[in-house]
Amino acid sequence: MLTIDDIKTRIKNGESVRSVVEDTLAKAEAAQEYNATISLIRDRALQRADEIDAKLKAGEDAGRLAGVPFIAKDIFLTFGGKTTAASNILRNFEAPYQSTAVERLEAEGAIVIGKANLDAFAHGASTENSDFGVVKNPHDPSRVAGGSSGGSAVVVALDVVPFSLGTDTGGSTRQPASFCGIVGVKPTYGAISRYGVMAMASSTDTIGTFANTVEDAALVFDVMAGKDQLDGTTLPERAESYLPANNPLKKLKVGVVKEYMGDAVQPAVRDAVRAQAEKLRSLGHDVEEVSVPTLDLSLAVYYIVVPAEVSSNLSRYDGIKYGESAKEAKDLQDLYGLTREILNAENKRRILIGTYVLSSGYIDAYYHKAQTVRTKLINEFNEAFGKYDVLVGPVAPTTAFKIGENANDPLQMYMADILSVAANLAGIPGISVPVGKDESGLPIGMQLLGAQRSDALLFALGKQLEEANSG
Known about the structure:
eleven-stranded mixed beta sheet; 15 helices
């Protein structure tokens, strides 16, 4: 299990950052059978390594992540290579600037060495919707890695890098983390800047973090979090520290979400969560069942609100501003149509659903009603967090499913999000921590959910649970 401290120790013991980066690039290439990366940023990564080596040799402070390599989901704008969003419409796009998240990590000495595969434009729950091929699960290559940040999860699970970046719009960090047996973090909405990250649904998009340990995930979060003048949705203040060591735990009230423990959830997943609830009780916390009634409607709300925002955000890919363009078009309307033919079937499906629910005659019946139910869900979460410090439940109803199993059934595929979308609709933070395996040896994740801005509390509890499970 590769950690940030493992990399730091190698460098402290005299290994050059260049050597670490070369080794990481070689591991990324060797892992290509899992199709987790779209591209590697070799030249710029080695140049950055040499710069950090020079700083260290001169005795300068190179940052908290000096020399630590990482991989970013190919939806983050980065220098040194293409940013494709796993879509052929952007297959040749080179970013003119970098995302704030990447900039802040690099300011602390981290080195982005590649771009991870994903469902194109983050539309999916399995990374089967990538124009660059499906990502395979590291525990069973016949199964999916989860989505949409599947590639980012796999490179951590395979110990290519100690951490990676994803995005979480409806579970796209937590669910792949659960399927791959690692830690996945979804922050409070606005805790980390989305500037320079291609938008899927602007009101639910958040920056996700993958790592092998809660402590590493918290450190990366701590580096990225905070107000950004380039993103008006970022929160005006942040916690003094998100590191578990700086946030000692008191006795907590923990609610096991009743709606997340129904018969539709795989028995092994339910049993693992129940066992963890008992472990939390043995650690001194009060544990009770809690009901959030509107959770049963959250998936329907999500698949109205999010496609509506998708249809708006993808309208910019028109063959004129950037990306691929249909050169054979006869007129402007033809240009729009032929260019958007490059988008894949899932992209088009979400555009059509979103445009429909926003259209005259249907916006009141669908979109406005969904937003009303969303508000009710937020109020129910606020009520629950008035009584409980943390809510817990499964991340997904099953462990990783077979590649192709749900590919021809969009409704069944959307059900993979049923336990994760509510956190995004409410803007609350969540962490997926590995808590066991099913009878086939596939990982199971449990999510910890907290009130808005309680990210530091979740890291502290996740760390406590992690230590209890490893003891």
